[in-house]
Specification:
- By secondary structure, the protein is mainly alpha-helical.
- The protein has four domains: 1-78, Orthogonal Bundle (Helix Hairpins), CATH 1.10.287; 104-216, no CATH class; 223-256; 334-376.
- The protein has helices spanning 4-8, 16-30, 39-56, 59-67, 69-74, 107-123, 145-156, 173-178, 181-216, 218-256, 259-262, 267-276, 278-286, 289-304, 312-325, 345-353, 355-376, and strands at residues 334-335, 340-341.
- Helix 2 (16-30) runs antiparallel to helix 3, helix 10 (218-256) runs antiparallel to helix 17 (355-376) and helix 14 crosses helix 16.
- The two termini are 55 Å apart.
- Residues 76-81, 259-268 and 287-328 have low confidence and may be disordered.
- This is DnaJ homolog subfamily C member 21.
Length: 377
């Protein structure tokens, strides 16, 4: 296996720009479409170039590769794994598999076998070997994401080895027995540090390998694409709902605060009036609900009570007015700004002319316009 830096022809301290320039140059040179006379070699070199750039262009993967470069290059020949554990470093490269089918050398077969070996090694040290729990399998190209792929990555991304790493102990058990109790505790402490360090290193290696594999897993890529499509659909649906909501608010704003109905001028004049009458609004808000209710009742009573109760002419007119009011639209007798219902058109018109009503209508209009601007933004 060749070093990724060597494949791209850049130094170990190459910048991101250096990597990108070298990759583009080599990819153009070795692209299979430009090497029809030597397509097999070109395809192989092009894959090496892609794999090298894919690792070195990712800051996290590059940091891991730099830290373990020698071990990765040694691969199965490495001398660091004397405890008969499978060497993971030879699997940190796309050169360890060929294609994404289900044949023996494919991506799925190679990594399925690898993770099965790791699981088997751990089970040797399991204290509950009769447990019904099964370590999730890697699966195949056709495995369902929810049932297989998601479960696999959820388990292995949080991998913790069961191996005790007692072979890393600095002091053996015979030495511990002969030492005084205080010295025994110090020796045991040193041994524990070495074991913990060994377990931590193994956990980091396996988790890093899981990230390496997941990034290249076509099943994960397909699921991410599906999620992106669903997200785009939901975003479009939300946008349409917001547009319908804004349109309804616009219609309500126009119907509730029509300039011709309430005698409003342009918005600039409305803002000016609001500023001038701000003190009145504050004062109105301080009034008690009881006084407000009484005022509304008095306004309506003054409109409905005849001036001369004993006059037959007035009585006749009142009957005529009441009969005509029965045909009025009930919605015209409701004031949405003040949240009041009126019995007659006259009482509603009198209410509309009141200063208190106009202040509330202007305040409502301003609030709704501000909310409309907020939704639009």
């Amino acid at each position: 296996m060749k070093c990724h830096y060597e494949v791209l022809g850049v130094p170990l301290n190459a910048s991101d720009d250096d990597l990108k320039k070298s990759y583009r140059k080599l990819a153009l040179k070795w692209h299979p479409d430009k090497n029809l006379d030597n397509s097999d070699e070109a395809k192989r070199e092009f894959q090496f170039i892609q794999a090298a750039y894919e690792v070195l262009s990712d800051p996290q993967e590059r940091a891991w590769y730099d830290k373990h470069r020698d071990a990765i290059l040694l691969g199965a020949k490495g001398a660091e794994y004397q405890e008969n554990a499978v060497n993971l470093f030879e699997y940190f490269t796309s050169a360890c598999y060929s294609g994404y089918g289900d044949d023996k050398q494919s991506f799925y077969s190679v990594y399925s076998e690898l993770f099965s070996k790791i699981a088997a090694e751990d089970m040797e040290f399991s204290q509950d070997q009769d447990s019904d729990f099964e370590i999730p399998d890697f699966g195949y190209s056709t495995s369902d994401y929810s049932e297989v792929v998601r479960t696999f990555y959820a388990y292995w991304s949080a991998y913790c080895t069961l191996r005790p790493y007692s072979w890393l102990d600095k002091y053996n058990i015979d030495t511990l027995k002969e030492a005084p109790r205080r010295i025994q505790r110090l020796m045991e402490k040193d041994n524990k540090k070495l074991r913990d360090a060994g377990r931590k290193q193994r956990n980091e290696e396996v988790r890093a390998l899981v990230n390496f594999v997941r990034k290249r897993d076509p099943r994960v890529k397909a699921y991410i694409k599906l999620l992106e499509e669903k997200t785009a659909q939901n975003a479009l649906k939300t946008k349409l709902q917001q547009e319908r909501h804004r349109e309804k608010r616009r219609q309500l704003l126009e119907e509730t605060t029509s300039p011709t109905k309430f005698g409003f001028t342009e918005m600039s004049d409305l803002e000016k009036q609001l500023r001038e009458e701000n003190d009145d609004v504050v004062q109105e808000n301080k009034e008690g609900s009881e006084d407000e209710g009484k005022e509304g009742i008095l306004d309506e009573s003054n409109e409905d009570i005849p001036k001369e109760e004993n006059s037959s002419e007035n009585a006749t007119n009142n009957v005529t007015d009441d009969d005509s009011d029965l045909d009025d639209d009930p919605l015209d007798l409701y004031c949405p700004a003040c949240k009041k219902n009126f019995k007659t058109v006259k009482s509603r018109e009198s209410h509309d002319r009141s200063k208190k009503h106009q202040i509330k209508v202007r305040a409502l209009r301003k609030t709704m316009l501000e909310e409309e601007e907020e939704y639009s933004s």
